[in-house]
């Protein structure tokens, strides 16, 4: 039996593509181990699936001044030593990395131990963690054609993002039950603000809620600590801090989605052919990758984009009406996208480098 070490963490976006690959890896006979941080979001997500999990020390290399910049390099060096030890203990045939700073020492340890590594970059421009790891990788997968120019030509492979199989098997009736909707006589608007939520999106949605409820049922994933107690029990409005397994059913029920523009999230919307409005993280709050992702999807006719800096409740309401009225155009564009068999392409790469 071949062995693979998977790595990636820090956000769910650095874990879910790994999870999407796991069924195919198991079917191909791979024994899977996972290396992540001690207490990152990836730990529970992976352990819940019964995969052996190994935590290592990790730190973040920032492009700005922070006191942790003085201590984190030592954490990374410690993590590198731990990763080397695990490589020699597990003896994998291949490493697959989804990025995040915990993955850097793992990929570099693989190089030291002569284990081939494959990296997946979700965004249009590579993040700092993947930039540091690319020299240790055999191949670098990416989601967008625009990304190829930023990667070494002999390593870059356009694969798209692995999508979880279960995402296609949602049950709308279950979502109606979760949300306590009285029936399915109105279209459903699903709002996803990310694991921490978005203050700007949450406030704009709640200001126009009476107008929305005239035409839609609303599912609002508002982020940890962002539930509005005054809105509990409002007929047709269902708010959650986040959704796990239930999200598959919510997607199946949704007619229109408002979302951040993380690469994995928007690739799921594309795969499901869900008309959507993207509100990317602002450049002030990020390195601007979500803006680039969103604009690429808008250019291809898959999405409508609103900048967070210009977001108002009236603009959001008008855009929701416009996109819903034009939903068939978005569905047609997505259905004609020629979406790649991401899992099949990545599995072939894994098989090729692990021979």
Automatic annotation (TrEMBL):
Gene3D superfamilies: Glycogen Phosphorylase B. GO terms for biological process: carbohydrate metabolic process; cell division; cell wall organization; peptidoglycan biosynthetic process; regulation of cell shape. It is an enzyme of class 2 (transferase). GO terms for molecular function: undecaprenyldiphospho-muramoylpentapeptide beta-N-acetylglucosaminyltransferase activity. It catalyses: di-trans,octa-cis-undecaprenyl diphospho-N-acetyl-alpha-D-muramoyl-L-alanyl-D-glutamyl-meso-2,6-diaminopimeloyl-D-alanyl-D-alanine + UDP-N-acetyl-alpha-D-glucosamine = di-trans,octa-cis-undecaprenyl diphospho-[N-acetyl-alpha-D-glucosaminyl-(1->4)]-N-acetyl-alpha-D-muramoyl-L-alanyl-D-glutamyl-meso-2,6-diaminopimeloyl-D-alanyl-D-alanine + UDP + H(+). The keyword Iron-sulfur does not apply. Keywords: Cell cycle, Cell division, Cell membrane, Cell shape, Cell wall biogenesis/degradation, Glycosyltransferase, Membrane, Peptidoglycan synthesis, Transferase. UDP-N-acetyl-alpha-D-glucosamine binds at residues 11-13, 164, 195, 290. InterPro entries: GlcNAc_MurG (IPR006009), Glyco_trans_28_C (IPR007235), GlycoTrans_28_N (IPR004276). Residues 188-337 form the Glycosyl transferase family 28 C-terminal domain. GO terms for cellular component: plasma membrane. SUPFAM superfamilies: UDP-Glycosyltransferase/glycogen phosphorylase (SSF53756). It comes from the Bacteria. Pfam families: Glyco_tran_28_C, Glyco_transf_28. It is found in: Cell membrane. Pathway: Cell wall biogenesis; peptidoglycan biosynthesis. Cell wall formation. Catalyzes the transfer of a GlcNAc subunit on undecaprenyl-pyrophosphoryl-MurNAc-pentapeptide (lipid intermediate I) to form undecaprenyl-pyrophosphoryl-MurNAc-(pentapeptide)GlcNAc (lipid intermediate II). Belongs to the glycosyltransferase 28 family. MurG subfamily. HAMAP family: MurG. This is UDP-N-acetylglucosamine--N-acetylmuramyl-(pentapeptide) pyrophosphoryl-undecaprenol N-acetylglucosamine transferase. It comes from Roseburia porci. The lineage of its organism: Bacteria, Bacillati, Bacillota, Clostridia, Lachnospirales.
């Amino acid at each position: 039996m071949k062995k693979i070490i998977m790595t990636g963490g820090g956000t769910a976006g650095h874990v879910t593509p790994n999870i999407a690959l796991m069924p195919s890896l198991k079917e191909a006979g791979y024994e899977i181990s996972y290396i992540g941080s001690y207490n990152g979001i990836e730990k529970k997500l992976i352990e819940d699936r019964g995969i052996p999990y190994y935590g290592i020390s990790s730190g973040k290399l920032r492009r700005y001044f922070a006191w942790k910049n003085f201590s984190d390099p030592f954490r990374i060096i410690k993590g590198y030593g731990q990763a080397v030890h695990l490589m020699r203990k597990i003896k994998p045939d291949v490493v697959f990395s989804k990025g995040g700073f915990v993955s850097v020492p793992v990929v570099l340890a693989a190089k030291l131990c002569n284990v081939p590594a494959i990296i997946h970059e979700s965004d249009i421009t590579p993040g700092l963690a993947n930039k540091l790891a690319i020299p240790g990788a055999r191949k670098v997968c990416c989601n967008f054609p625009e990304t190829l120019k930023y990667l070494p030509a002999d390593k870059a492979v356009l694969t798209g993002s692995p999508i979880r199989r279960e995402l296609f098997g949602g049950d709308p009736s279950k979502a109606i039950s979760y949300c306590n909707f009285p029936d399915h006589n109105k279209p459903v608007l699903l709002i996803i603000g990310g694991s921490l939520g978005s203050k700007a999106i949450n406030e704009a949605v709640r200001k126009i809620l009476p107008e929305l409820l005239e035409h839609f049922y609303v599912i609002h994933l508002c982020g940890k600590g962002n539930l509005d107690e005054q809105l509990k029990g409002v007929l047709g409005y269902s708010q959650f801090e986040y959704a796990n397994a239930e999200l598959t059913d919510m997607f199946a029920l949704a007619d229109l989605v408002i979302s951040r523009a993380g690469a994995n999230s928007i690739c799921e919307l594309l795969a499901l052919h869900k008309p959507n409005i993207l509100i990317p993280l602002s450049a002030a709050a990020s390195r601007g990758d979500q803006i680039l992702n969103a604009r690429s999807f808008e250019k291809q006719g898959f999405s409508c984009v609103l900048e967070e800096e210009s977001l108002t409740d009236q603009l959001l309401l008008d855009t929701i009406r416009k996109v819903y009225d034009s939903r068939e155009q978005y569905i047609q564009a997505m259905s004609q996208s020629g979406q790649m068999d991401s899992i099949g392409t990545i599995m072939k790469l894994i098989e090729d480098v692990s021979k």
